[in-house]
Amino acid sequence: MTAEPHELISVRAPEQIVESLKVDRSPRNIRACLPPADRDYFDEDFRRAMAKATEELDLAPVNALLAHWWHMARMKATGEYEEVLEHGARIQEQIERGEYVPGRPLREVLAERASELGVKLDL
């Protein structure tokens, strides 16, 4: 008989996931808060970021990855992720029909967000 690692699978309400993410931003908790279908992607991304951090002696890739997946876990728990996808699809349809889509240019939004993070983008 072999002993294989296993995860305790528990179903949590979206509010419980959001609360958990507020108090624990560890890789283990972020992964546990993701839908099971996303966990392999998280694992792959995390291992790649850790390898890069080890090679470059810089934790910035790991921190950026954890921030990304933290937001994904939160958005997927609350349904915001699907709303964003649906909104994006509606905008894409408008663009394809040649309709005017109000808003700010993506380049401007990205530059603003990068500035807030202290990152210089070459757009």
Structural summary, described in words:
- This protein is mostly helical and 123 residues long.
- It has helices at residues 14-23, 27-33, 36-56, 60-78, 80-96, 106-117.
- It has one domain.
- The longest helix has 21 residues, at 36-56.
Short note summarizing the structure:
The chain has 123 residues and is mostly helical. Helix content is 70%, strand content 0%.
How do the helices and strands line up, and which of them pair or pack?
Blueprint: H1 14-23, H2 27-33, H3 36-56, H4 60-78, H5 80-96, H6 106-117
Helix pairs in contact: 1-4, 2-4, 3-4
InterPro entries: DUF6247
Please describe the structure with a list of short key phrases separated by commas or semicolons.
123 residues; mainly alpha; 6 helices; 0% strand; globular; disordered N terminus
State the low-pLDDT regions, or none: 1-6
Give the percentage of residues in beta strands: under 5%
What's the β-strand tally? 0
Rg result: 18 Å
Task: Report the order of strands and helices.
Answer: HHHHHH
Mean pLDDT: 87
Question: In the residues, how many domains can be counted?
Answer: 1
> Residue share in helices?
55-70%
Shape: globular
How many helices?
6
Main sheet record: none
What is the distance, rounded to the nearest whole angstrom, between the alpha carbons of the first and last residues? 57 Å
* Structural class by helix and strand composition: mainly alpha
